[in-house]
Every structure is written in C-alpha cells, then in structure tokens.
Amino acid sequence: MARLTPPWFTCIAAVAGLAVGGLGCFAMVHRSQRRQVQATRTLRDLDQREQVYARFIDQASEMWLDALESPHDPANLIGLSALVGRIRLASSRPVLQAAETVMDVLLDACERRPADICKLVAEAPRELMAPLTAFTGACRAEREQMLRSL
Questions:
Q1: Is the pTM of this model over 0.90?
Q2: Which residues have C-beta within 8 Å of that of residue 10, sequence separation ≥ 6?
Q3: For the chain, what percent of residues have pLDDT higher than 70?
Q4: Domain boundaries defined on the chain
C-alpha cells in the first residue's frame, strides 16, 4: 500500500474543501431560487385574489344600492354568488364568512321594501355598509398575513 505523504494530504484536503464549498453554494442557490419561486407564486395568488375581491365589492355595492332603491329579484345575485364560489376556493375562512354575510344581507335586502336611502344613511351610516366593511377588513388581514409569509 502506498504511503500518503504530506502533499497528498494537502491535495485531499483541497478537494474535500472544494466539494464542501460547492455543495454549500449549491444548497444556498437552490434555497434562494425556491424562495423566489414561492414569493412569485404568493404575489401572483395575492393579485388574483385582489381582483376577485374588487369585483365582489363592486358588484355587491351596486346590488346593495339597487336593492335599497327598488324591488330587486334575488336571481340577480347569481353573478355575485359565483364570485363567492371563487372566494370559497382560494380564500381564508374569515374572508369567506364575510363574503357569505354580505350575500345574506343582500338576500334580506331583496326581500324588504325599498327604503329612502337618505334616511337610512342619516340614521346609521356605518351600519349600512358594515358587511362590506367587515369583508374588506378580512381581505386586508389575509393580504397582510400572506405578505408576512414572504
């Protein structure tokens, strides 16, 4: 068996150091790319949710106003119900519960007689929009949680 001399020890140590350094570098690059992909995916998901939430708020606001001004057919809520279905697929439980509360309030509004909007706003301006305010609050909390995970 050949005897290892000090130059061989140096050579082996250099190769081992290179291997360890290379593996460490590979692991860091892999981890960095993985986090980048995850951040990109989270931001894309967040953008899609914000678009759905904005459409929901726009449609719910219009329907709420329509239901307060004139008799409203509950069948008109089907488009909004479809948005709640999309919310159900991807959103957190608080956001879904808030969206379902908005739907319930709209269904109740469709069954009631039209009201004088000016009188309603004067009597209880915050209570009038409370379901939508709760929905936007839940959406904001979910957004902040998603951004913290980055």
A1: no
A2: none
A3: 91
A4: 41-148
